Each structure stands twice: as C-alpha cells, then as structure tokens.
Amino acid sequence: MTVIRQQDFIDSIADALQFISYYHPADFIHALACAYKAEQSPAARDAMAQILTNSRMCAAGHRPICQDTGIVVAFVRVGMQVRWEADLDVVGMVNAGVRQAYLNPDNVLRASIVADPAGLRKNTNDNTPAVVHIELVQGDKVEVRIAAKGGGSENKAVMKMLNPGDDIVEWVLQSVQGMGAGWCPPGMLGIGIGGTAEKAVLLAKESLMQPMDMHELRARGAQNYIEELRIELYDKVNALGIGAQGLGGLTTVMDVKILDYPTHAASKPVAIIPNCAATRHIHFELDGTGRAEFTPPKLEDYPDVQWQPATDALRVNLDTITREQISQWQPGDTVLLSGKLLTGRDAAHKRIVEMLARGEKLPQGVDFTNRFIYYVGPVDPVKGEVVGPAGPTTATRMDKYTETMLDATGLMGMVGKAERGKAAIEAIRKHAAVYLIAVGGAAYLVSKAIRSAKVVAFKDLGMEAIYEFEVEDMPVTVAVDTQGRSIHDIGPAEWKKRIGMRCEL
After folding, report:
1. Residues with Cβ < 8 Å from 279, sequence gap 6 or more?
2. Are 109 and 186 in a shared domain?
3. Does 215 participate in catalysis according to the annotation?
4. pTM to 2 decimals?
5. Of the candidates 37, 108, 132, 46, which has an alpha carbon nearest to the alpha carbon of residue 312?
6. What is the mean pLDDT of residues 132-138?
7. Does the pLDDT of residue 111 top 90, yes or no?
8. Does residue 142 sit in the same domain as residue 162?
9. Would strands 466-480 and 334-343 be described as parallel, antiparallel, or unpaired?
10. What is the C-alpha to C-alpha distance for residues 348 and 343, in angstroms, rounded to an integer?
11. pLDDT by residue (tens digit) across 194-215?
12. Of 24, 30, 349, 488, which residue is the catalytic one?
C-alpha cells in the first residue's frame, strides 16, 4: 500500500502551478513555432512573434506568461490502494497548494478569484478555492492533471444539446465565429461530446489537458472517426481566417481535442472550451517516494524569435496627443505608445459609472480628458519591478460602459484585447474615439514598456484598482478607428477569402 504524505501533495501542487506560470508546454511552443513559420499575415505573424518572445522571456525570468494567472482546475485520480497521511481532505490539500503557489514571494501570481459571485464578488486574495474533480481508480498512485485557466478563454465556453441528427461540425464552426477573439487565439479547442449536459462540458475541459499532436496526427492519418473529426474541424476552423488575436491569418487553432462518452438515444450534448495562447497545464504522479519533480525546458529548445517593433510603427506621445492625430489612424496601423496611461477594468468601470450617475466627482488623479485607458489587471511586482506582467484583458466586457465613459469623462481612446460589440463601436464612432489592442499572451513583454506604476484610485479593488502607468514604446495595433471601422471585421474577412482562393488552386 502506497502512503502519500500531505506535505508532498501540497508541495507538488504548488510547484506545478509555479512551473506552468512561466513555462509553456513544449508541445505548445513547437506548434506555435510551426504556425509562425507558415503564417503569411503580417499582423498575425507579429502577434505570434510577441507571444513566442514573451514565452522565452518568462522561462528565463520565471515570471507569469500572462497577467491572468488563471483559475486552478485539478483532475485528481486516487488509486484505491493509496493511504493518505494527512489531516486535510484532497480538496483542502489542493487549495493549500494553490495558496502556497500564488503567494510565493519570488513569483507572486495574480489573485483573480472572487467569492459571492452573484453579489459582492470579493477577492479571496490567494486564488482559492480551486475547482477539483476527484476520481477513485484502480492502482496505488495519485495522478494529478492540473491547469490554470484564463478567464478570457473560459468565458467563451459554449454548450448545446443538439438533436441526434444535427451536424456537430456546422455547430462548432458557428460557435467559433461567435467567440470572436476574446479567447486569445491561436490556441486549442477542447470539445466534449455525449453523456449529459454537465458531462459534455467536463469532457471538453478534460480534453484540454492533452498534449498538442495535430501535426503528428495529420502525418500518420486518422485511425477512427474522432480523429477524422479532429482533422476536419482543424482545417475548417482555420479556414475561417480569424487568425492570431482575431487579426486575420492562416492559424486560428493549433489543435482540436475531442473526448466523447455514451449518451441517451434522444440526445447529442456538445460543449466547446477554447484554450488561449497562455496554455498552462501539467501532469504528474505521486507514488509515495516524495514530492513531484518537474524538468524545465532548455532555452535553446525555444525558437529563435526575437520580436522587434515594425520599422514603420507610429510613435505617439500620450501626453500631447490630439483628436486630430487619432483621426488619421487606420485599422491595422501599428502604434508605439509613450507617456501617461490610466488603467481600469470591470470593477473600476462599474464604480466610475455609478459615481457619475450620482453626480459625484471622480477621485483625485482620475481625469480621463483627452486621455487613454488600458484595460488591465497587472500582477504584483517582485525583485525591483515597477509592475508585474501586465497584458490586456478582454475589452468586450467594458462595452456596456463605453458610451458613458466617452460621453461623460472626455476619454479619447481605449487599449485592450479582442473585438468590440456593435454598441461600443457605434459609441467610438459617435465620439470620434479609437480602440487599440495589445497582444494577449505577451504580458511580460508588454510590462517591459511600463517605466513606472502607481495606484491612483480604488486601491481596495486589488488588481482591479486604477493605476497610472508611464509607458515607453508600448506596442499596440489600431483595432477600431474614429470612423468605427474594425480590424476584427476587416482582417478575418480578407483572410477567409484568401484561404478560400488558396484552396481552389
């Protein structure tokens, strides 16, 4: 009988979460390097270069790949011959490991979990509790598959009870087009088919724990229907032309994973959960001999990609920029921002709009007149940093506040990631404002452009407080111009047509 000691389990969970915070899985790096090499869209290629450069920087510096260090999901399989030497139950031990990992002073990870989700939404401050799935199996070991799942991609999960005769491929393609770019492609789609409603979603999540092997699968050929379906969906999703960050390009997904389960004769449950460019998961086993050990990748195994800003990038001073200047920008233009930049995301926007509705003045230091706001919740700094990794959050969540912010505060521009909805784009056009995007999945690289950072309001909101950043050559792309034209419409439409033309040759 194997004896698993409590501290070995807790330390293994903590070590695993630290490890995946700064090391991409080797299969992801290989797949992204292949996609980068093949990519023909300059905008998508630039985004991939930033993600690859960021990945290498994080591996060398042991800092998070993305500022959203995720909600922890653990699949724990416990052998029935295992005996625990522990005071805590399995969920309690997982949470102890999460707490230990996220509060590690050498690499503090962002606490993103809020309790009372339908009410106060108060941050738990240590990223607990995790979501834990436990299964009793044959054997004398404990197997753990653990991931830190970003909110942007998790929010794009979809599930539907199809009729038995409905076409899965057709529904998946419709769903992926509806996801937009908020899940930070290029990444992976996890698909669950069968069982019941909750089983299909669980299968989709569990499938994301598998390594990427699409290139190997295509090389050897499909050996069963599920493998045929994976290849078909991979080809057809990429033919949509969505591309990296939704900018248009050849690669939207680098793999499609599918798990299935028997279902009722009247049902066909199907769920999709995308995994973003900040893919973080790992697998380990405990056999009673101590804590798990993780072998880091070698830096020489990373592709030799060193992102540099485009030579034709427009350098902009945020402290002196005018509305006349931004009116000249076109969707797809590359811009390097320097100067003072305020931040704010969901909770800050909600509080600002409520204050304005009550006729109250905004806090001292929060003046958006002719200024830009960056949708970000940064990681806390360590070892002399002015700020930790600080990549963009999904801008679509701020759409409901956009008209008020532009109308009542004098705001000139916004920086985030992914597309904007119709109402937000109309507000941008109406107020002759602009929306810019930074690359999701390049948070550490972006943070190197931030020269100083200070909280100016709403400190109680933690990572959602309003900061003032001083930035220098922060790389962004014009996503929506003052006329309301969106690169997330223009880019994919262009590349969908190009891919179709290529297929007809």
Report:
1. 24, 25, 28, 187, 188
2. no
3. no
4. 0.95
5. 46
6. 98
7. yes
8. no
9. antiparallel
10. 9
11. 999 999 999 999 999 999 999 9
12. 349
266 and 338 both lie in a single domain: no
Q: Establish how many alpha carbons lie within 13 A of residue 435's alpha carbon, considering only the half-sphere containing its beta carbon.
A: 33
Looking at residue 119, its pLDDT comes to 95
484 and 353 together in one domain: yes
Give a yes or no: residue 502 inside a domain. Answer: no
Q: How far is 493 from 118, CA to CA, in rounded Å?
A: 38
Return the closest-CA partner of residue 24 out of 47, 56, 1: 56
Residues 346 and 421 in one domain: yes
Question: What is the rounded distance in angstroms from the CA atom of residue 296 to the CA atom of residue 462?
Answer: 31
Rg (alpha carbons) of the chain, rounded to whole number: 23
Q: Are residues 156 and 146 in the same domain?
A: no
Domain range for 103: 1-150+299-306
310 token code pair? 């485009």
Closest CA to 288 of 79, 138, 18, 136: 79
Q: What is the pLDDT of residue 501?
A: 65
- What mean pLDDT do residues 98-110 have? 97
Contact 448, 318 (CB under 8 A): no
Last residue of a domain, one of 266, 288, 306: 306
Number of domains composing the chain: 3
Least Cα distance to 227 among 214, 240, 210, 211 occurs for 214
Shared domain for 265 and 319, answered yes or no, is no
Q: Does residue 503 carry a pLDDT above 90?
A: no
CA atoms in the 13 A half-sphere facing the CB of 503: 13
The DSSP result for 42-58, as a single string, is: HHHHHHHHHHHHHHHHH
CA–CA distance from 421 to each of 68, 171, 239, 369, 399 (Å)?
A: 22, 22, 23, 24, 7
Total count of residues recorded for the chain: 505
Q: Please state the rounded mean pLDDT for residues 53-57.
A: 97
Query: Region 205-230: what's the mean pLDDT?
Result: 97
Give pLDDT, residue 502.
60
Residue type, 68: D
What strands lie across the sheet with 71-79, from one edge to the other?
131-137, 71-79, 142-149, 281-286
- Tokens 């088919």, residue located: 193
Please report, rounded to a whole number, the percentage of residues in the chain having pLDDT higher than 90. Answer: 97
Q: Average pLDDT, whole number, for the chain?
A: 96
Report the alpha-carbon distance of residue 35 to residue 255 in Å, rounded. 11
The pLDDT tens digits for 240-297 are 999 999 999 999 999 999 999 999 999 999 999 999 999 999 999 999 999 999 999 9
% of the chain residues with pLDDT over 70:
99
Same domain membership, residue 130 and residue 1:
yes
How many Cβ atoms are within 10 Å of 306's Cβ, its own excluded?
Answer: 9
